Amino acid sequence: MAPRTKTQQPPAPHAADSHDLIRVHGARENNLKDVSIELPKRRLTVFTGVSGSGKSSLVFATIAAESQRLINETYPAFVQGFMPNQARPDVDVLDGLTTAIIVDQQRMGSDPRSTVGTATDANAMLRILFSRLGKPHIGPPGAFAFNVPSVTASGAITVERGNKKAVKATFSRTGGMCPRCEGRGSVSDIDLTQLYDDSKSIAEGAFTIPGWKSDSWWTVRIYADSGFLDPNKPIAKFTKKEMQDFLYREPTKVKVEGSTLTFEGLIPKIQKSFLSKDREAMQPHIREFVDRAVTFTTCPECEGTRLTEGARSSKVNKISIADACAMEIRDLAEWVRGLDEPSVAPLLEALQQTLDSFVEIGLGYLALDRPSGTLSGGEAQRVKMIRHLGSSLTDVTYVFDEPTIGLHPHDIQRMNDLLLRLRDKGNTVLVVEHKPEAIAIADHVVDLGPGAGTAGGTVCFEGTLEGLRASDTVTGRHLDDRAVLKDEVRKPTGALEIRGATSHNLRDVDVDIPLGVLTVITGVAGSGKSSLVHGSIPAGENVISVDQSPIKGSRRSNPATYTGLLEPIRKAFAKANGVKPALFSANSEGACPTCNGAGVIFTDLGMMASVSSPCEDCEGKRFQASVLDYHLGGRDISEVLAMSVAQAEEFFASGEAAIPAAHKILDRLVDVGLGYLSLGQPLTTLSGGERQRLKLATHMGDKGGVYVLDEPTTGLHLADVEQLLGLLDRLVESGKSVIVIEHHQAVMAHADWIIDLGPGAGHDGGQIVFEGTPADLVAARSTLTGEHLAEYVGE
User: Fold this and answer.
1) CB atoms within 10 A of CB 115
2) Which of 51, 123, 416, 734 is most buried, by CB atoms within 10 Å?
3) How many alpha carbons lie under 13 Å from residue 119 in its C-beta half-sphere?
4) What residues pair up with 495 in beta bridges, in sequence order?
5) How many angstroms separate the CA atoms of 549 and 530, rounded?
6) What span, in angstroms and rounded, lies between the C-alpha atoms of 590 and 577?
7) In this predicted model, what pLDDT tens digit does every residue of 381-393 receive, in sequence order?
């Protein structure tokens, strides 16, 4: 008989395998209310909830922020001194974190020399490729870079070798920057009639430039007392030399009233003070002046390629680097695939991988020379994903902020596949998302709410998708919502005619956009929607455009200052108390002197995170104690700023505190669904969806007949989309025309008229593939949009 063997016990689990959860306990960042939650690692977790419910506060401001802070702390103190200081999030316990890679919606820099190619290293690899293989050979990689100017220098230098001294040297560097446009691709032409009135003299105040008053030191004094021109002679009567000095003179030191100052020609001075700044960051009146005075035209020397003639002359297989950057990336990928050169094989492989990632992620229609500032939020986010797609890293946490933004329903499936691929490599994927198609792929769902702002900040549900559907949360109830097609659509009152539109990839498009109705422009990403609307509809006084550009504002800005609401409130307080309005501004005379109206004191601790603590004098109220003695309707100014929009609307509606101007602005804020925001909440704490609706509310007061909205459902929960549709209806019923660029099927179904562009993206798009009612589009099913819309409404 064979001896009996003992049954082998399974091995005890290894201690290292027990760390399979990210534990968060007592999170209180922004509006979170002591949130405690456990998230499974190596799974895809989707965070849902209404806009402003605390999703970003939990995912970005708590989990991802702490992960990055802990990684930064591993560097030496010297290196930390050069890195952004991050304070520890307001949370009791954070356990089981892994390295976080954040892919957010922040727009990419709008520097005029930043392109898709420079932002993704594709240009750097192409430059090396052309410097090695290009014929004729013109120099190193820098010779193909439009950010590198050519430099030549010669002179005496001293080199000590034994007793000999060599004293002559020349130096030159070949760069690829076009000298005429300095690598920008366009040159600015300044309209002199917008800068000055030539019938007047400088002493009479000839300048018409904003801020250049006739008695200001840097204009009249320098120009008048420089000695180069006669300040009392009308500009039209200047001699040729005086005009040359006035407009173009190089910076020259001059004595003015005993001080040494720099005199500079008007054109270079305007270029430095106005044209070197980001247009979006300018004050409205300055931007208006620049738009009036400056016209941008394609550089005649480099024909918009930004490169020198030498860089354009060097070719590989009859293609120059300018041609390569102008190609659509999917065509460029095919061209690179056809290059067979063993001497640069590793470079070709890396370049091929980067270009294929663009195509895979649905951005094959872009070109490498596309300025990065012109990408939409969704495109910018996907460009940032490129470098992570082929990554060999595993066990990291990828954090995505609405990766389906700007994607047609047809493209969402592709994005879902990418997220699942990242998860299947053993990574933890955290996604903040509203679209049901993206929530459907989650392994784990966390629903925050129940409301927004102070009414949110708690976990309403966590579990599976099925569990969410059965739960009685706002998301659960709206998950299967489907907008229905209208029985009757409105009749247009006129038409906005667009003829021969050729902007970007548009192919000589002729279309009539109906007025007096809700028109939706749709099509796959890159089909030409924005080019048609923003490039072809003249932005006149009658057209109000609300795009996706971010709101500029510091932590001192809040909804009250941004919307102009604080102005009538300050005046009402001043009138009721017989004092100056400036006292009721925390950025002016009424500010607490200890914290300068910030409400908090920041203590800089060098390379450690700076510490902020509430100001002890004003207790975070931001105003001097004496200012808080003045009341309106029984409330002081700090109590008014602490009110929610809905409370303030009631407060300023009647009685002693009735302010019609303020009430009108508050009405609009309630209309766009921001009734829960407090008036004094810093803009930096608002979510993306809240900022877009805040912008929409401010523009609703503008006098204009045509509203152009660019993806207004960005950052909106399914429940908020219903409210947005109601708002769009009210705008149309009040006599406005509303044109919406949108991918959301609920907005398409609700439209009176749909214009669908396609059939594909880039050079496969740029045509009108359908125009008509949503019902006709569903019945025809002739386009990708038609198929997805029919599936959505259940036809």
Assistant:
1) 26
2) 51
3) 28
4) 514
5) 13
6) 14
7) 888 888 787 778 8
Q: What is the C-alpha separation between 42 and 424, in angstroms, rounded?
A: 8
In this prediction, residue 279 has a pLDDT band, given cuts at 50, 70 and 90, of low
Distance CA(674)–CA(455), nearest Å, equals: 12
CA-atom Rg of the chain in angstroms:
30
Q: Would you call the peptide bond into 140 cis, given omega within 30 degrees of 0 as the criterion?
A: no
Q: How far is CA 685 from the centre of its chain?
A: 16
pLDDT bracket for residue 483 (50, 70, 90): confident
Beta bridge partners of residue 94, listed in sequence order: 24
By C-alpha distance, which of 657, 631, 637 is closest to 589? Answer: 637
CB atoms within 10 A of CB 274: 20
702 has a pLDDT exceeding 80:
no
Report the C-alpha gap between 538 and 617 in whole angstroms: 52
Provide the 8-state DSSP code for 649.
Answer: H
Q: Work out the average pLDDT over 44-48.
A: 97
What are the tens digits of pLDDT across the range 202-243? 888 888 888 776 666 556 667 777 778 888 888 888 888 888
* Cβ count within 10 A of residue 2: 4
- The set of residues, in sequence order, having a beta carbon less than 8 Å from that of 787 and lying 6+ positions away, is 781
Q: How far is residue 39's CA from residue 53's CA, in Å, rounded to a whole number?
A: 18
The sign one gets for the Cα dihedral 28, 30, 32, 35 is: negative
Nearby residues of 694 by Cβ (< 8 Å), 6 or more positions away: 551, 559, 562, 563, 669, 672, 674, 677, 683, 686
User: Please, is 226 exposed, middle or buried when counting C-beta atoms within 10 Å of its C-beta (0-12, 13-18, 19+)?
Assistant: buried
Q: Are 368 and 306 spatial neighbours (Cβ–Cβ below 8 Å)?
A: no
Containing 725, the helix (H) or strand (E) segment is helix 718-733
**E strand residue ranges, 272-389:** 294-298, 315-316, 319-320
Cα distance between residue 242 and residue 245, in whole Å: 5
Ramachandran quadrant class, 182 (left: phi over 0; alpha: psi -120 to 50; beta: rest): left
Contact assessment for residue 511 and residue 770, using Cβ atoms and an 8 Å cutoff: no
The predicted pLDDT at position 109 comes to 66
Tell how many helices (H) and how many strands (E) occur in the chain.
29, 29
Q: Given a cut of 70, is residue 138 above it in pLDDT? A: yes
Angle at 671 between CA 637 and CA 739, to 5 degrees: 130
d(CA 785, CA 743): 9
Q: What is the rounded end-to-end Cα distance, in angstroms, of the chain?
A: 73
Residue 723 has pLDDT above 90, yes or no: no
Say if CB 208 and CB 196 are below 8 A apart.
yes
Nearest alpha-carbon partner for 245 in 255, 256, 235, 232: 235
Q: Is 654 exposed, middle or buried (0-12, 13-18, 19+ CB in 10 A)?
A: exposed
Q: Alpha helix (H) ranges present in 18-140?
A: 55-58, 65-72, 77-80, 116-119, 122-133
Strand (E) or helix (H) holding 216:
none
Residue 728 is predicted with a pLDDT of 92
pLDDT band at residue 452 under the 50/70/90 scheme: confident
In one-letter notation, the amino acid at residue 567 is E
Longest CA span, the chain: 125
Angle at 521 between CA 520 and CA 522, to 5 degrees: 110
CA triple 260-264-265, angle to 5 deg: 155
Which residues make Cβ contacts (< 8 Å) with residue 419, sequence separation at least 6?
44, 400, 403, 429, 431, 438, 441
**Mean pLDDT to the nearest integer, 39-57:** 94
- Min mean pLDDT across 400-414, 504-518, 774-788 is at 400-414
* pLDDT(8) > 80: no
Phi, psi for residue 261 in degrees, rounded to 5: -125, 170
Q: How far apart are CA 559 and CA 683, in angstroms?
A: 7
The number of CA neighbours under 13 Å toward the Cβ of 472 is 0
pLDDT band at 423 (very low <50, low <70, confident <90, very high): very high
